[in-house]
Amino acid sequence: MKVLYTLIICLLTTGAFAQTSENEPAKPATDTVHTDTVKVKRKRIRFGFGDDAAQVNVNRRDTDYYTVSKAPGWSFGLTFTRFDIGLTTLNDNGSFKLSPANQFLNYRSWRSSNIGFDVLQLSYRFSSSFRIYASGGFDWTNLRLRESVTILRDQPALAYQVDNVKYDKNRLSATYVRIPLSFDFRTHDHANGRRFHFVAGPDIGLLLSSSLKQESDEKGDLKLGGNYHFAKVRYGAFARVGYGAIGVFAKYYFTNMFENSAAQEGLKQFNFGMSVGW
After folding, report:
1. What's the whole-model pTM score?
2. 144 vs 147: CA distance, rounded Å
3. Are residues 14 and 63 in the same domain?
4. CB count, 10 Å around CB of 210?
5. pLDDT at 130
6. 168 and 32 in a common domain
7. How many angstroms separate the Cα of 27 from the Cα of each of 30, 45, 91, 239?
8. Could you list the residue range(s) of the whole structural domain that residue 246 is in?
9. Measured between alpha carbons, how far is 236 from 254 in angstroms, rounded to an integer?
10. For position 69, what pLDDT does the model report?
11. Which of 158, 264, 268, 270 has the most other CB atoms within 10 Å of its CB?
């Protein structure tokens, strides 16, 4: 009997709460500068009591409207967003085909990657549809080399030696701090709460480290850090287009990929792929 009484009390309480929520007068709207009105359909459970048993109706759908306000102003904080995962492509003086002087950098297109994300953000919102933000994060470039060569570290210019070794992995990598400045245009929320984003701006990168990792039966696993003449400071432009939390990105750097190396003059980097989070 205690269980039955408890169940009845719970049903009555839930029914009363649902009825109160339905009849509750709307709160007066506060003054906002920019608003988006969003329509959301949801199921609402209603309880009724007949002569013999409880009746539950879950088929009725109610349409609710709520307003999302984005007032102008500054914001600053930690974040983990704009996670980019894509491919790295080299552009050799306007051509995606490497010149003879750069053939030792011949790479596997579908295994040469670019990965990055932001961890810090300072932004100013002008309206619900437009904001500007500067962010900071990390960016990794990985070139999976096809040739059996070893890129030599700490040389006056980018240099290599040919090896009589079959490498299972021969990866030249660079790690950068990335500092993009983003101009973010976005549409109003759709009924599902998602929106389109169109983001573009300049990007600056500061070199943190570079390394060469090799794996082979003959030499085992090697990871060699040092100076591989990656540009210490690079700058370029990027664009992102997305819907909800998923989108695509493209980045092109105007600086040479390698510095103080005359043979690699005009060799630049282009990245593209998928981006998650806005």
Report:
1. 0.74
2. 9
3. yes
4. 20
5. 95
6. no
7. 9, 23, 59, 41
8. 73-276
9. 5
10. 52
11. 158
Tokens of 185: 């245009």
Q: Which residues contact 101 (CB under 8 A, 6 or more apart)?
A: 263, 264
Of residues 251, 264, 236, 235, the one with CA closest to residue 98? 264
In 3-state terms, what secondary structure has residue 246?
strand
Query: SS3 helix, strand, coil % of the chain, rounded to 5?
Result: 10, 60, 30
Q: Taking a C-beta distance cutoff of 8 angstroms, is the pair 105, 92 a contact?
A: no
CATH of the domain at 210: 2.40.160
Q: Give, in order, the Cα–Cα distances in Å from 21 to each of 14, 17, 40, 67.
A: 11, 6, 16, 18
Planar angle of CA 205, 207, 208, nearest 5 degrees: 125
Distance CA 146, CA 104 (A): 8
Q: Answer whether 108's CB lies under 8 Å from 114's CB.
A: no
Burial 67-78 (b: 16+ CB within 10 A, else e): eeebeeeeeeee
Q: Are residues 13 and 50 in the same domain?
A: yes
Among candidate residues 65, 62, 75, 173, the one with its CA nearest the CA of residue 132: 75
User: 């040739």: which residue's tokens?
Assistant: 147
Same domain for 43 and 142, yes or no, is no
CB 268 within 8 A of CB 231: no
Element (H, E) at 163: none
Tokens of 14: 């839930």
Smallest CA-to-CA distance from 243 within 181, 189, 200, 203 is with 189
